[in-house]
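Checklist before submission:
- one chain only
- standard amino acids only
- sequence pasted in full

Submission:
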Amino acid sequence: MALRYAGFHTGVNRVLVARALLATALMVALFWLRRPPAKVAIIAGGLRLLTRRVKSERIYAEIDWSLLLMFAGLFIVAGALRELLTPDLVARVVRLHLEQVAILSAVTAVLSNLVSNVPAVLMIQPFVVSLPNQTTAWLTIAIASTLAGNFTILGSTANLIVVQKAAASGVEISFWGYFRVGAPLTVITLVIGTLWMWL
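Returned file contents:
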């Protein structure tokens, strides 16, 4: 059934929905088969772009090129910083006792708010591979990097996307307005997450 919303005539294209669901199911299956996530995602995305039902111009018009450029920049910086790591620096950081859940959680949270949480995980990887309990370490990083993304607007790329989209719709989300809610919420949830991992 076609719907009218904000002056546009829209409807559900069942063929495209079915293809999207099929691509999603295929991606999940390949992830479970331990295929490289980046390769799976780019192949599935490429296949989704192959359609005669929607003009390519409409698809490309929906791509946020400035956001893609920012993502590329973040990963380039994170990769460059990883290349600058020396064995001596790695040894010094390991001496911070990253095997302790609270310290690893704090380091991950701080780093996540300096370079955003996804690049932070890439940067911290060299310091984690030498830790005795890999499962606990990676679960701690997963929890801390995810929750730390709520501390400031810069803590997560998702925050920047929301702020950008809100501004385009006439809604302004200020840094300090977000911080007043995000900071205490992040501290509380990080403490709970750290205690859960520690216990």
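Reviewer check: The CA atoms of residues 28 and 67 lie 25 Å apart.
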